[in-house]
Amino acid sequence: MHVTSPAFKENSARALANPGLQKALGTAKGAFLQRRAAAVANLPEFERLRDIGRDIKNHTLANLDFYLEAFEQKVLAAGGKVHWCSSADDARAVVLKICKAAGAKTVTKGKSMISEELGINHHLEAHGIQPVETDLGEYILQLRGEAPSHIIAPAFHLNREDWEADFRRLHTDLPADRVFHERRDILAEARTRLRDRFLAADVGITGANFLIAETGSSVIVTNEGNGDLTQTLPRVHIALASIEKVVPTLEDATSLLRLLARSATGQDFSVYTTFSTAARREADLDGPEEYHVVLVDSGRSNMIGTEFQEMLRCIRCAACMNHCPVYGAVGGHAYGWVYPGPMGSVLTPSLVGIDKTGMLPNASTFCGRCEAVCPVKIPLPKMMRHWREREFERHLTPAAARSNLALWAWFAKRPGLYRLATRAATGVLGLLGRGKGAFTSLPLAGGWTAGRDLPVPEGGTFMAQYAKTRRRR
Q1: Cα(417)–Cα(415) distance, rounded to whole angstroms?
Q2: What's the whole-number average pLDDT of the chain?
Q3: Is residue 115 included in any domain, yes or no?
Q4: Considering only CA atoms, which of 64, 82, 443, 452 is closest in space to residue 294?
């Protein structure tokens, strides 16, 4: 997929100047925060559960090869097939091969971020196979030709009037007096149009929130029935999953499920939580004839044993981006690839390369809210700092930033001179800004004042005030 992460600043400027996007962000993000807070408050053991979730994922990652092989054995024993794919190209080739073997003309898809990462839709279309997104948000984005802007609410950036306008523009057979008062009205219209696609599809593709080594099952979590229809009506079901989605047991999966919905949407459990184990058996009334699991590495095994391994604990709840002030201001498309927000600022450089994504780990205030709400306690700010270090080591940061940092380091290594320089700078700025409160422009500080005011220093430096307090005590 085309990566526009290097243009993060330009993307963000457009996002900030887009009134429709700003309205959508302001409307949607508050609801996520309130619902999550209420759900957490109603579960006294939530913090203990976060520790359990962290430990489950840490144990699994430490023994990832064992649990992946155990999962494969269970799938094979139940009559399914597992496909190991080291790269995105391998995964696309496997999916296409399965679809061609099934003679598929139409493929229905449940919501899946890994399929976005792999560019499955474009690949199938290029080979004459029509993929149909069946999640309501993904459906409208497919009609608009847009990528998701959020990992659980793909059309997060749209307002209700956008949805209605697009339905009328793209469905020209709608009666003029047909009015969409609520989201459920649009959902009903989409359901009517998708019903024939569900029945016609030869292959259904879903993601997987979890893979269970104990049983060989894949788990999907949705709030619409499209996921179940996608994996039970077609003759062939393909479950796409990255390798870190495996967990050891059913009990581990249910522990993580208790964290997932509460962190994502503020629900105790999502409306549909579906476990699939292989293909239809003789006594089953429905289900696919073939069950394929496509396991995707695509750079993730390179994260094992590094300072970025903890990122693989992520269960894709989006709590970090829902609470992030940067994401809340610019939305998901500004990040330029599949995974936005704080989790994307760590994961995207790991998968795409820091040379293309250096802007992302720098797009953080380090307020720490992302780590505070993460259900599996991923230290996202720490890992963004590691990426900043990698960027600096490879001389990818701007020359001005490097030279200014070197100048600061020179002073910082000479404490007496550093204190003298900071006292002088504080005094001069205090005199220049007397009565102003803040500078709106300042020589050598244009990069700061172009986007925000610079407060006028008040009082002495931190070290001077610290010394004064100690003397007083």
Answers
A1: 6
A2: 92
A3: yes
A4: 82
- How far is Cα 256 from Cα 52, in angstroms, rounded to an integer? 8
CA angle in degrees (0–180, nearest 5) for 253-255-258: 110
pLDDT digits (tens, 9 = 90+) for 395-446: 998 888 888 888 999 999 999 999 999 989 888 888 888 878 888 888 878 8
How many angstroms separate the CA atoms of 278 and 288, rounded?
A: 8
Strand boundaries in 74-179, DSSP class E:
81-85, 106-109, 130-133
Give the residue carrying structure tokens 């999916």: 95
| Alpha carbons 383 and 354: distance in angstroms, whole number | 13
What SS3 class is residue 24?
A: helix
Among candidate residues 348, 351, 373, the one with its CA nearest the CA of residue 362: 348
Closest residue by Cα to residue 129 from 237, 234, 236, 202: 202
Q: From start to end of 365-437, where are the E strands?
A: none
How many other C-beta atoms lie within 10 A of the C-beta of residue 472? 6
249: buried, middle or exposed (CB in 10 Å: 19+, 13-18, 0-12)? middle
On whether both 135 and 260 belong to a single domain, the answer is yes
The residue to which tokens 């793909």 are assigned: 154
Q: Classify strands 130-133 and 203-206 as parallel, antiparallel or unpaired.
A: unpaired
- Are the C-beta atoms of 262 and 268 separated by less than 8 Å? yes
267, 298, 329 — which closes off a domain?
A: 298
Compute φ and ψ for 314, nearest 5 degrees.
Answer: -55, 130
Of 39, 71, 452, nearest to 264 (Cα)? 39
DSSP state of 110: -
- Number of folded domains in the chain? 2
pLDDT tens digits along 246-286: 999 999 999 999 999 999 999 999 999 999 999 998 888 88
Asked if the structure places residue 32 within a domain, the reply is no
- The verdict on residue 338 lying in a domain is no
Q: DSSP assignment of 280-347, as one string?
A: --TT-SS--SEEEEEEE-TTSGGGTTSTTGGGGG-----HHHHT-HHHHHH-SGGG-SSS-HHHHHHH
pLDDT tens digits for 122-158?
Answer: 999 999 999 999 998 999 899 889 999 999 999 999 9
Q: Are 171 and 146 in contact (CB under 8 A)?
A: no
Token code pair at residue 168: 């009328």
CB 153 within 8 Å of CB 344: no
Answer whether residue 356 is part of any domain.
Answer: no
Which one, of 138, 268, 276, lies nearest residue 218 by Cα?
276
Query: Cβ atoms within 10 A of the Cβ of 281, count?
Result: 10
pLDDT for res 166: 78
Q: Which tens digits make up the pLDDT trace of 37-91?
A: 999 999 999 999 999 999 999 999 999 999 999 999 999 999 999 999 999 999 9
Which domain does 441 fall in, by range? 413-472
